TrEMBL record:
Belongs to the PlsY family. It comes from the Bacteria. The chain crosses the membrane at residues 66-90, 111-132, 144-164. InterPro entries: G3P_acylTferase_PlsY (IPR003811), NAD(P)-bd_dom_sf (IPR036291), Shikm_DH/Glu-tRNA_Rdtase (IPR006151). Pfam families: G3P_acyltransf, Shikimate_DH. It comes from Deinococcus arboris. This is Glycerol-3-phosphate acyltransferase.
Length: 557
């Protein structure tokens, strides 16, 4: 009896795992990675393939749930039937990769749940009212509130409570509870989005490739710079008082952050180009803190790849890597190789373009103050990076002395050798010490450090600082040094009245240039202009500067 029960449960799991709905859609030529549970499947599938195929897919999903329970009912024990319902649901949520490949399609399982409830009632495993009441609760919550995830959990909670009142074996009651637990785990990201206010309701316009000719969809990957940023997300705010009271350590929070897969945490609304195209942009995050990118690059790359897959499933055409994400996986190359069906960009070209556009104006204004550039000393901080080296290359021929500061002195020397050949009259010095900035009249800084790196002792009176770092490289206290001027760089205002549910810390209605590049690629459709790897083509820099102007993007000065 035990062996037969176990065998039937295994069969129920395998039956539940068969992606019949996805198979129907695939046979119809539908990309199931675009039409999927992340995009409120029923609404989008109806739009994509029509009523007949949608109904067939739903019927097959319900049918496999019904079949799994029906086979288990042959033993005549209600607890095995309820456990078979659980096994079928688990199979639907977690199809074996051995059978269906490394990334099998995973739906919500609502139609399967309907099938197992119907079978439980038909076979007499539970009374009819215990199977129909959860469906009524589901319909009521979905109709009143509009959130499918909340409706599913409410229905399963009702079933769990109903099972607890019935004269069932404890195994059956635990099976009903396990159904609720499994669904809660499946919908954990939806619950997080409910807390963040980003979960779509039934009927909300959800992006779907080809659905609207005047709308494009992009996604952008962000991460917290500090634990303060981590708390700012409402889904994690409850952790803060626990840490402050010593219930959970900061180390524990960091470990939690490292275990979390990418999630949708926000959305940019209201972006509309001059030519009338609407751009929707999802903000995704895997909450890794900056030190993780340095200490665990493999984990960071894996999370970036997972983020790209999530972006694709959400309907995005372009996926941008922001902040420290921009340097993982060989600056996006490995991410693109792992997820070839969505365009990946690290935003380097337009970031360089905004700087390239800003530097002549800065130097012109500096000279207009009666200061001789050929007698001036310029410091470039973060010169090991692509952006800062681009700055150094631009200004080297125009100043008397150039100080290049970075962490890797050997790499700095190789870069300096290149500049010395092009700017023969300029004295070029490389160092890892910030103290040398004290002699700089102009400071250009573009690091990815999560904390300020330039403080008053590093700055002489009257110095100008062009700060490309995000967060800012120059501590706010440097503005107290007499005559010092701090100029933020790489900040762009998209066209239209952009709003966001989270603070990107670039000012209201403003985004970093790397995010703007993501939006421009989506708007123009010129995906081959993406920025990947350490090299940035001059023609792409010029392209983004020109297209930004045409589309209405404005560099914030």
């Amino acid at each position: 009896m035990v062996f037969l029960s176990a065998l039937l449960l295994l069969v129920a799991f395998l039956v539940g795992s068969v992606p019949v709905g996805s198979a129907v859609l695939s046979r119809a030529g539908v990309n199931v990675r675009v039409t999927n549970a992340h995009n409120l499947g029923v609404d989008n599938v109806l739009h994509r393939v029509g009523v007949r195929l949608s109904a067939l897919g739903a019927l097959l999903d319900a049918g496999k749930g019904f079949l799994a329970v029906l086979m288990a009912s042959s033993l005549g024990t209600p607890e095995v039937s309820v456990l078979a319902a659980l096994a079928a649901y688990l199979g639907h949520l977690n199809p074996p990769r051995l059978l269906y490949g490394p990334n099998p399609p995973r739906g919500r399982g609502n139609m399967l749940l309907l099938g197992v409830l119907a079978a439980l009632a038909v076979t007499g495993a539970v009374p009819l009212w215990a199977a129909t009441l959860p469906v009524m609760v589901y319909a009521g919550v979905a109709g009143f509130w509009g959130y499918v995830s909340a409706a599913t959990l409410a229905g399963l909670l009702t079933f769990t409570l109903a099972a607890a009142t019935l004269n069932l074996d404890p195994a059956a009651k635990l099976g009903a509870l396990a159904l609720l637990v499994a669904a809660t785990w499946r919908f954990k990201e939806n619950l997080g989005r409910l807390l963040d206010g980003t979960e779509p309701r039934l009927g909300d316009p959800v992006p779907l490739a080809g659905r609207r000719s005047d709308e494009v969809v992009a996604a952008f990957m962000i991460h917290p710079m500090t634990l303060e940023n981590f708390w700012s997300a409402r889904r994690f705010a409850w952790l803060r008082p626990l840490v402050e009271r010593g219930v959970i350590s900061e180390k524990g929070v960091r470990q939690l952050a490292e275990s979390l897969r990418p999630m949708k945490v926000g959305e940019l609304h209201g972006i509309r180009t001059v030519d009338g195209k609407s751009i929707r942009c999802y903000l995704l995050s895997s909450p890794l803190l900056p030190d993780v990118f340095r200490d665990q690059p493999e984990l960071a790359t894996r999370r970036a790849i997972e983020g790209a897959r999530l972006a694709q499933e959400l309907g995005a055409e372009v996926f941008g890597l922001g902040a420290f994400w921009s340097v993982v996986g060989n600056k996006g190359v490995d991410v693109q190789a792992a997820v070839p069906d969505i365009t990946i960009t690290n935003g380097g070209a337009y970031t360089s373009g905004t700087i390239k556009a800003a530097i002549p104006g800065i130097l012109e204004h500096f000279a207009a103050q009666g200061r001789d550039l050929k007698q001036a000393t310029a410091g470039v901080v973060g010169a090991n990076g692509v952006v800062a080296f681009g700055i150094a290359r631009t200004i080297a021929p125009q100043v008397g002395k150039l100080i290049m500061i970075g962490r890797d002195l050997e790499r700095l020397e190789r870069s300096a050798a290149t500049l010395r050949r092009a700017a023969k009259t300029t004295e070029i010095v490389t160092t890892t010490s910030y103290d040398t900035l004290k002699e700089a009249d102009l400071i250009f800084t573009a690091t990815s450090d999560p904390n300020p790196v330039i403080f008053p002792p590093h700055v002489k009176p009257g110095a100008w600082i062009f700060d490309e770092g995000r967060p800012a490289d120059a501590h706010e206290s440097v503005q107290a040094v007499p005559g010092v001027r701090v100029i933020p760089g790489g900040v762009v205002r998209p066209p239209g009245g952009m709003t966001s549910n989270i603070d990107l810390q670039f000012g209201e209605g403003q985004v970093p240039a790397c995010l703007a590049e993501t939006l421009i690629i989506a708007a123009t459709g010129e995906h081959w202009r993406k920025s990947l790897g350490p090299q940035t083509l001059s023609e792409n820099i010029n392209f983004f500067v020109e297209q930004a102007d045409k589309l209405g993007f404005q560099v914030v000065e």
